[in-house]
Amino acid sequence: MATIVMAGGGTGGHVVPLLAVARELEARGHEPVFIGTRTGFEAKLVPAAGFPLEFIEIGGLKRVGVMRTIRTLAQLPLSIRRVLTLLSKYRPAAVFSLGGYAAGPVVLASLLKRLPLVVMEPNAMPGLTNRQVGRFVTRALLSFQEASRFFPAGKSEVTGLPVRSEFFDIPAKVREPKLTILITGGSQGSRTLNEAARGSWSYFREAKFPVRFIHQTGSSAYESIARKFAESGMEGEVLPFIEDMPAAFRRADLVICRAGAGAIAELAAAGKAAILVPLPHAADQHQLRNAEAFEKAGAAVLVIDKDMDGGRLFEEVAKLQAQPEILKRMGERARGLAHPGAARRAADVLEMAIRH
To answer: In this predicted structure, what is the pLDDT of residue 70?
Structure first.
């Protein structure tokens, strides 16, 4: 069977979906080989999953400052040369890219080698690498139709992002008298969401609002927020990290979170209504574009980062609690945006690219 190079990394949001596709390819008898950096999440996650990983040295180009940009541009020719050597070594039949700075040299080298290139673009606003090479791709697999304008007509399709099956298995939540709110800013937490949650407790308490919190704070803010939460008398739990996120989703009536591609895909798979607070400094404002697409579909409420505080959090939750039919419809609209089988479809497309 074929060797396929997997490109992309830096964040877990890039690496986890790549691993899902790699596992599907491996199950079909193919041999995935990853190319990434020593500083990205791939350095830990890929070897742990049992796949070979080759390293290159490259940094980012977006919002990194002048000196970092100069260093990255200086690294680029050597990184491309290194990738060309790896492509000669492994002789892959195709390259699969999920973007991120680690993917840039791999994608450019694959084009020089005229290898079939399949990209997966998880955001409504494609990243720099995918925007630059869009017209050369064999196929683009999208999470948002809005991204299709960056790729040639007829060469893209909406497949969604690979998401763990446990999220798709979550049934519609039966409403209880007490609203359960899941707040998560990702594994590292979010200062904005942490402070907004803490500021909201007095509003909920004074209004005698029937609410229960599940709050993932990140490790750095955990002790402070957990102590204040215990003193507040509010019901729920504060955790530095939630090991079983599908279980937390299952218990939640409403999720308050950032709008990264992974979070958006999980909300859709689980059919959960959400209040989305996009990270304001995300490259190319891609989180804002993701949240706008979800809001346009009626699946979420969008609140800009600078506007989110304790009072606004309480206000938005209270409005949704007062209109349970809207909360239910948001969950249904979110579920309508889900795409089960994204990893299988990616493997199908790669096999077609190899045959042609």
So the answer is: 54
User: For residues 276 and 343, is the Cβ–Cβ distance under 8 A?
Assistant: no
pLDDT of residue 102: 82
Identical topology for domains 3-162+341-355 and 166-336: yes
Thinking of the domain 166-336, which architecture would CATH place it in? 3-Layer(aba) Sandwich (3.40)
Other CB atoms within 10 Å distance of the CB of residue 347: 24
- Return the structure tokens found at 221: 């803010």
Determine whether domain 3-162+341-355 maps to CATH 3.50.50.60: no
The ranges assigned to domains in the chain are: 3-162+341-355, 166-336
How far apart, in whole angstroms, are the C-alpha atoms of residue 104 and residue 75?
Answer: 11
Average pLDDT of adjacent 10-residue blocks, the chain of 356 residues: 91 87 97 93 92 82 50 71 95 94 90 97 89 93 95 96 94 93 91 98 97 96 97 96 95 97 96 97 88 97 98 98 95 96 97 93
